[in-house]
Design brief:
Layout: H1 2-9, H2 23-50, E1 72-74, E2 81-83, E3 91-97, H3 102-117, E4 124-130, H4 136-145, E5 152-153, H5 159-164, E6 171-175, E7 181-185, H6 191-197
Length: 205
Amino acid sequence: MTALVQGTRGAGTAPGAPPPPHPRRRRRRALMASAVVGAVAIGLVAVLATRTVAPGTEATSNLAGKVAPAVAGRNLATGVPVRLSAERGRFVLVDFFASWCAACQQEAPAIEQFLFSHRNAHDVAVIGVDSTTDTTGDAKAFLARRGATFPAITDPGGRIADSYGVASPPQSFLVAPDGKVVAWFPGGVTAALLDRLVPVPRSGS
C-alpha cells in the first residue's frame, strides 16, 4: 500500500525534476512575452512611418486609377476658394507640405520649375495642402520665402490628408486631366520626374 501511495504521488513527474511553474507565474510570463511582442511591433510601425524616402521616388498608391478624393479650401494668401474639381482638363499636382519639412523646402524649386515650363500651355496646376501640424502663419511665410505661385490651403482636422492616406509630408499625387490619380510620390518630387510624366508640349502642337 505504501508503494502504491508513493507511486500515485509521483505520477507524471520524473525523479529529481523541478516542480511545474505556478499558474500565476505562467500568466505573468505570457503577459511579459505579449508586451515584448507589442513593443517590437510598435517600434517597427514607427520606423516604417518615419523612414526617409528619396525625392523623386514614384510608388504605387491604392488610389491609382481612381478618381482623386476631393481637395477644397481657401487660398492661404488670397482667401479665394480652391477646388481640385475646378481643374479638370489639366494635370494637377496635389502637394502635401509643411513649413518645418526640410524635404518640402528642397522640392519647392522643382514645383515652380514645373509650373514655369508649362506656363504657355496652361496644361498643369498645383494645389498645396498644408499639414495640420503647421500654423497658418508659418505656412504663409514658407510659401512667400519660396516664391510659390500656386495656391495652398489648410486641412482642418486632416480630412484631406486622411482621404489620400498621407501621414506626413512631403507627399504628392499627380492627377490626370480626367480627375484620376496616376502617380504618387511619397518623398517629394523632382523636376526630372515631373518632366518625364508630363512633358512640356512643343510649340505649335
